[in-house]
Amino acid sequence: MAKTVKEVVTSIGMKRVISYIDKDPDTNIPKILDWLENHDLGGGVIKQVKSIKETIKNKDNNWYRLIKSLWTDVDDGVRRKLFENFVINASMIGTPKQNKMKSKYSCNVPWAILFDPTSACNLHCIGCWAAEYGNKLNLTYDEINDIVIQGKKLGTYFYIFSGGEPLVRKDDIIKLCKQHNDCAFLSFTNGTLIDEKFADEMLKVKNFIPAISIEGFEEDTDFRRGKGTFKKVVRATEILKAKKLPFGFSCCYTSKNVGTIGSEDYFNFMVNIGAKFAWFFTYIPVGKDAVTDLMVTPEQRKKMYHVIRDFRKTKPLFTLDFWNDGEFVNGCIAGGRSYLHINANGDIEPCAFIHYADKNIHNDTILEALQGPLFTQYRQGQPFNSNLLRPCPLLDNPEKLEGMVDRSKAKSTDLESPENVHVLCGKCKQAASKWAPVADILWANTIKKKIAEENQKS
Q1: What pLDDT, in 10s, does the model give residues 403-444?
Q2: Dist CA 348 CA 340 (whole Å)
């Protein structure tokens, strides 16, 4: 889809600014932030820019150290390409396009699309539904390419691979990155298939970033992912770091590893090994054989709420908590509001954890799915709770998911063992009821703090 004159001008201007900043990052980082603030007429990055400007006034600040490390630790060409694709295309150009499409078609339009090239995986991790499928489901290259083509027409320039293990399809992933060099690609990966050859391919395409799944240190990681996995992950990070390729971690905290995941030693480990970001998820019992005793207690979830926020003030690491950060994104981001998920069978699901659908890419377009009954239910229901620390329609408000699936007549997409939505939600109701009073206290304190800050400003 051809860019407009305005979009081309914005892109050219940003490239010049990036070239300018490379000459003297310390002096020019604040100037690029000023440029972004003045030229982001579509509102794609302005909120984040204002926040960053405030936090980096002190050059000893952890956020300034993180931003500066993008010049010292990352290949120049990779950094420029990712800035261009994330900041310009995905945000400054993509966000206004998405808003236009939302208005035109009266539906959600995602900022990111998550999809599974394959259900195959070289590991068999405890509690992972993908392990049940084996090497049975695969999207063809033409199908994954068409997903990106459709997404770009909607204004979506950020794509995330999941699975299965996406790097089982290394060649197709690199091919897709080349074909759509105006997009940014990220992959959730166990990291064990990252080798010198693949890292060299990453260095060539410049628009691919791995988010390596890790459960803590060696004992916790190997417990869930298999003996020797941790050492393979460390080796992968050494390869990436040597080639100045950015990477991050994907951390699933459970009742068994929350002590490790939430420790300062672990955060220091991620920073010291070279990670630039860490995405935190909590365990959800999805799948017929999923155990419930790995779900965190309210006290453990509360601990992670405080730990992640506290370390954001001191560690040069960009962190996201996909449940406890609901207040920053107005609740649930699934259902196409910020992202959607397409599994290896082509089912278009509202969320990677919500395995129900009423549309499939083999019969329907992504836009038709966004306008369909299930995604419409999501749009009408979001946010699912006025307490934004209870954002999820499964983990926090299971009755909401039951209602949406029933009303939309969506079907389970688990081909091995279809799971009735009431059975799935039944596994989460006790956890939801126990979290509610804890979250309500946290939310009340958040509201009080915001009111106090506003009063102080006035």
Answers
A1: 999 999 999 998 878 999 999 999 999 999 999 999 999 999
A2: 7
Q: Where are the alpha helices (DSSP H) in 312-408?
A: 366-370, 373-381, 398-408
The residues near 75 (Cβ < 8 Å, ≥ 6 apart) are 203, 206, 243, 244, 245
* Cα dihedral sign, 388-302-54-16: negative
**Radius of gyration for the chain, computed over Cα atoms and rounded to the nearest angstrom:** 21
Distance between CA atoms of residues 94 and 100, nearest Å: 10
Q: What's the rounded Cα separation, in Å, for the pair 158 and 185? A: 6
Go through 417-431 and write b for each residue having 16 or more CB atoms within 10 A of its CB, e for each that does not. Answer: eebebeebbebbeeb
Q: Are 166 and 188 in contact (CB under 8 A)?
A: yes
Query: Can you list the positions of beta strands (E) in 343-439?
Result: 348-349, 356-357, 411-412
Closest C-alpha among 288, 303, 293 to residue 255: 293
Residue 90 DSSP class: I
State pTM to two decimals: 0.91
Task: Please state, in angstroms and rounded to a whole number, the distance separating the CA atoms of residues 401 and 298.
Answer: 21
pLDDT tens for each residue of 365-402: 999 999 999 999 999 999 999 999 999 999 999 999 99
Res. 32 pLDDT band, cuts 50 70 90: confident
Distances (CA, A) of 119 to 87, 131, 165, 300: 31, 8, 7, 31
Is the bond preceding 383 in cis, omega lying within 30 degrees of 0?
Answer: yes
**Within the chain, how many helices (H) and strands (E) appear?**
19, 11
Tokens matching residue 174: 């690199």
Place of tokens 């790097």: 167
Residue 125, classed as helix, strand or coil, is coil
CA-wise closest residue to 112 among 28, 186, 43, 59? 186
- C-alpha–C-alpha distance, residues 310 and 301, integer Å: 14
Q: The tokens 């905290």 sit on which residue? A: 253
